[in-house]
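Researcher: Structure for this, please.
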Amino acid sequence: MPHLRTFLGAPREAAYTLLAPFPGFVCGVVLLALLAVSLVTSVTQVGLVLLVGVLAVARGTGALHRGLLRGLLGEDIAAPPAREKAPGLVGSLRAALTDSDGWRAAAFTIAYAPVGVVLFVVSVGMRLYGLAGLTYPLWWRAVEEDGRRGVGLAGDVRMDSWLAALLTAAAGLAVLAFAAWSTRGLLTLVVRPMARALLGRGRLDDRVHVLEETRALAVQDSAATLRRIERDLHDGAQSRLIAVAMALAGARDQLARAPGDAPELARGRELVDSALGNSRTAIAELRDLVRGIHPPALNDGLDVALETLATRAGLPVTTRVDLPVRPPEAIASIAYFCAAELVANAARHAGASRAEIEAYEQGGVLRLVVRDDGHGGARMRTGRGVGGTGLTGLAERVSTVDGRLLIDSPDGGPTTVTAELPLGQESPACAS
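Model: Predicted structure, token format:
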């Protein structure tokens, strides 16, 4: 079998060179013609729509080639990610025309047309020629031209003897070996590298995929660490501070009932009162810190957390939440802190008399909209030393999950701020 493969090649390689070139050539020629027509007519809407269709067909043709490569050659090429959907007709058209994976698939399809022809000629044509030579001793006596047996070559040279037949068989065997070697060389040096470069994920896509996986792991670890810190602070340090405060309160009561007005006794009462006040302040600050790490209301869902936030705001706030699926914890935390900051800004800085919070899912994105009837003029500050505060800090927090913050706040109001948060991403920034 190894010796037979040397001359005939691997069966799967032979099957690929027999099955893939014809559809590859047809698809390449058709796609090239459609691409030329669409580019010429791209100044019109019909041409742009046709170009979008060409790229979609190219993606489908790329999937066909990946299937043939995987099934016949064992070349497993990961499919590129699906094209991202953009809102609006113009956005969808722009996203389709800038689909780099579609353009790379089109480039492969067009480039494969001549490569497939060469591959077919080398693999199939040369093998047929070699088999004819290899079997020449079996049928040369059956061929008769001008009363002479055998096949004639240039001039008067004829292969009409057993010696010539055997030499022809040896030449046919060499042609078969060369065809197998050439086929494997074309597949190894041309087809496989071209397919990996144009049909799979681009280098940037691979890098982005790795970074997304790394960030997801970091998010999980960060979220677990923050929740552990929250529990430790709530169950450990806060409980001990409460116990200290209760002990100090008891000591103050004992000192208040103690007889006498000695200076030392009065000084002791002052020290206990001061320590009790400091412990209560520390408890309040610790509770704020724990709520800042993870608001307890989020344990019951973002809708409950936003309703709780509305009841504690310094102005009337209405909420509308339409989330069929509970968002990831990190996304929900970002949305909550954005809503809390925006409502606080409306109450303290915008002079608003009412506000509205709306949260809903659209196209795999959580959209948090906060409106108020204040005097407007909200702007993100830029420059050194302003990051992490106000609207700038919210924009930075939202950007950590590839989201964005949209601000519509003309002078005189009203103000509408929209946070768009992809539901497929998580970030530790939500609780930082």
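Researcher: Any notable elements?
Model: Residues 300-431 form a domain with the Heat Shock Protein 90 fold (CATH 3.30.565.10). The first strand starts at residue 144 and ends at 145.
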